[in-house]
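Students often ask why inverse folding is considered easier than folding. One informal answer: many sequences map to the same fold, so there is more than one right answer. In these notes we will look at a single instance of the problem. The structure comes first.
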């Protein structure tokens, strides 16, 4: 069994990848999360001419997938990790050069994004690290255009084990906060299992005006 201090360090690398180990973990997550990425992009229902923001973009795989499939959209990616932003920049270099994509190193609790400028916000496997759910949702509400949508994908269990803490947080904190901020049609969607992990997402949209 690994020492507790090493386990904590490994967990911190998943939250904020750093250095060569962080780069390796970023690429490992690209391979591991293909099912969640594909399903989440389907939920976004991306239309021509829209702008998409990914919170916690990691090594930029979801961004690259969207840019390849939708040649007339703009995609923004935000991550706190410089290491992982560098990987995302390499993966999306051509789209960044043509200004179809851009990357921001920053905190999802304080988005450096213009008000009402985004059509779709999505995030995959970051919800576990949100320090303040209401603050992040407030920022999402601020940057979304009228009738904009969000998809926040996470896992709530593996195999026969249910992760009650994350489920209770979504039910008791996330959904009430989203409704209070004025989001409509807030609901939990069940997705496909990935490596025996149970994939789910909270979705919602802003009002028309």
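Output (designed amino acids):
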């Amino acid at each position: 069994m690994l020492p507790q201090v090493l386990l904590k360090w490994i967990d911190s690398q998943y939250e904020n990848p750093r250095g060569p180990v962080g780069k390796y973990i970023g690429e490992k997550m690209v391979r591991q999360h293909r099912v969640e990425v594909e399903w989440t992009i389907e939920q976004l229902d991306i239309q021509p001419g829209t702008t998409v923001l990914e919170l916690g973009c990691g090594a930029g795989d979801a961004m690259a997938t969207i840019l390849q499939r939708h040649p007339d959209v703009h995609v923004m990616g935000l991550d706190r990790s410089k290491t992982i932003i560098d990987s995302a920049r390499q993966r999306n270099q051509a789209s960044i050069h043509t200004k179809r994509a851009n990357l921001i190193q920053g905190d999802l609790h304080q988005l450096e994004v213009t008000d009402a400028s985004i059509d779709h916000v999505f995030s995959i496997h970051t919800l576990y690290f949100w320090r303040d759910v209401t603050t992040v949702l407030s920022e999402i509400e601020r940057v979304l255009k009228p009738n904009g949508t969000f998809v926040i994908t996470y896992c709530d269990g593996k195999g026969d084990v249910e992760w009650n803490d994350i489920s209770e947080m979504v039910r008791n904190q996330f959904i009430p906060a989203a409704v209070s901020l004025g989001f409509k049609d807030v609901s939990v969607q069940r997705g496909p299992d990935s490596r025996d992990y149970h994939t789910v997402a909270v979705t919602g949209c802003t009002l028309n005006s």
